[in-house]
Amino acid sequence: MTKGGMESVEVFPSEGKGRGLKALKEFLPGDVIFAEPAYAAVVFDSLTHLICHTCFKRQERLHRCGQCKFAYYCDRTCQRAAWLNHKNECSAIKRHGKVPTENIRLAARIMWKIEREGSGLSEGCLVSIDDLQNHVDSFGEEEKKELHADVESFLEFWPPQSQQFGLQYISHIFGVISCNGFTLSDQRGLQAVGVGIFPNLCQANHDCWPNCTVIFNNGNHEAVRSMFHTQMRIELRALSKISPGDELTVSYVDFLNVSEERQKQLKKQYYFDCACEHCKKKIKDDVMLAVKEGESKPSAEMVKEAIQFSKDTLEKINKARMEGLYHEVVKLCRECLKKQEPVLGETNIYLLRILSIASEVLSYLQMFEEAADYAKRMVDGYQKIYHPNNAQLGMAVMRAGVTHWHAGLIEAGHGLICKAYATLLITHGPSHPITKDLEVMRVQTEMELRMFQQNEFVYYKMREAALKNQKIQVMPEPSNEASPSLFHKKE
Hints:
By secondary structure, this protein is α+β, with helices and mostly antiparallel strands. The chain has helices at residues 76-96, 102-117, 141-157, 167-180, 259-270, 277-280, 285-288, 300-322, 326-340, 349-364, 368-383, 391-406, 410-427, 433-454, 456-468; strands at residues 9-14, 18-23, 32-36, 40-43, 63-64, 72-73, 182-185, 192-197, 205-206, 212-217, 233-238, 247-250. The protein contains 15 helices and twelve strands.
């Protein structure tokens, strides 16, 4: 079964998984298999005044809807583009007197679209909203209570003049959101800012070592002529060569976890037992739990103690980060690394997690040389674990490259930025804002490297003078979140 704009893929019955997507033609790494606009999408409750409600970009100055005083937009272009979806929401918020939660808002937007267009196949959709999995029958007691509360709140918010839906159907929509809500990120790709429903994407099954990746593209409304504007969308991109008939898979969770932990996470959040090749054979588990080799190989008791110390420290670090105590975070990281380094191998995930936090926080505190050392060790470990075309690996290498540049390590910095650029060309594509920014960095560091190779002394003098004339560029404040996961789960 294919539909307009989706001629290269087909929905098929996948053994043990229900439905799946398969390719109808060959794809090479970096090819866009399909792009899909959101069926419905909303900004997270905590960010409604900071993020554009149309393109989900973070902007310093946003225009507020003059009627409901709730929705914010980059400009009039984004506001006009949003009106079809915001019109009913706007009047409902005014009538209700308060803004409901993101779950209620997303359910309402889905219902209003169904009211306008019906619940059958929309243009470009392979499946209807009615056919999406809701897994309500698999909900635990706590989830059922939350579902009941959401339905009650929805009924209070839903206008009496709008089409009325039965309780079972409303529960189905909330189940669909719980299982299929896709995380939307800002234009930097580092912070989760919203959630949306993409019916075609929902048909792609999980694999811990997938052949595709999903990238959110905020679109572009900046061109003077509207014909050059591009729509907010997700892009399913090939990570490796895909032949006709191959199933298209994506990873619902970060690979940086042993197979047992990934399986637990998938069972808890998505209600299935992962039986992919990497989980069945526990591929790379030994790499992720590596210990020091050689004559002084640690005992099992020492390894157990170091891992428990790491877990306890990570809890303390999370608490300190939540309170903005970044110097305390650095102190905890240094203490933990002293305990880890004689025991854990360079690819051990507990060591890599501490290195990642330490490099990020030290960069923010302008302690770039120490940050660069940790970032390099982190990237070296990641490269032995992740698929070479993994988007999270590419972003980590990019951050490491920028950290090295700030530390004045131009050769290593340029090398890392070039590696990141090669990865992101495949995962994000050349027109994505992150890739474009990285291309600018690549060109700049290449020029600086040439200067450095000609005369190191002159290079550092010119660099020092240039930095003195600029306001110090502060690295982004460390986020308390992990990298945005593929699908959004209500906390």
